Amino acid sequence: MVAVRRPGMAALVPASGAVAALAVAVTAVTLSWSAPPLPPPGSVLDPTAAGIADPYGAARLAPVDGSRPPVNLAAETRDGDLRLALTDGSTGHPVDDLLVHDSALIHLVVVSPVGRLWHLHPVRVAPGDHRVKFTAPEQGRYAVTAEIARRGGGRQQLRTTITLEAAGGTAPATKDFGVERRIAPAGSPSTITARFGTRDQQPWLGMAGHMIVVGPVTSEIADAPIWAHVHAMVPGRQNRPDESVAAFGPDVPFTYTFPLPGRYLVWVQAERGYAVRTAPMTVDIPEPGRPAR
Ligand SMILES: [Cu+2]
Asked: How far is the CA of 108 from the centre of ligand 1 (A)?
């Protein structure tokens, strides 16, 4: 109402504002007598679970959404730590209702300007305050993605960027193992299989393997629109994570449908000899209807 500048409108607007305010007040009073109280935040895990196969096919959509709002992610470096501030997208308060998923509170993926990958698991030091040691090996804008699961809020992927000065850090070692690609055009499933040759891998974070996908990269990596984390499940576990130390392999297949054509950075990660091995690669995804190169 303050923003109205036209003199002719000035007299009308406060009157309509008063009517609107009265309507809101009346509605609120009416609802407070008739509507059941909302469930406590996070107590309803998924109100659509009953119709999970076809959530829109139910005669009546669930009238209550007990899930939690999105989380805002801010990153800064201080005293050799990469510090993550997680705040509720609705209240701005620190978020302190994270669940452990895939064996960690936060799966943090950092990619440097030249395409080096870190897959880190920060430690919670206070509500909404998670930290991990990080020293940048190169100057520039780093992509930062945090995967979380919020109590009652499902999984969320939080993205931000941070510009850092080179501080003498070293990049994680990479290891080339054999990789077989069956690349399909955008919108169709591609399969990337890491071949270790021998059956000697351990599950890492409950999975036979992890694949990080970033792209299409046209300028800075941090601006890539697609950011995915794909899992290869341990065979025979019916999609349940496996924390045993049994040997797996020798092949770790990932199936992923690249949504857009273009050049992607892909990292395949698996554990062998109780060390995580990371194989970086570049994948070119053709447009739908074009053959893969
Ligand atoms: Cu992780």
From this structure: 6
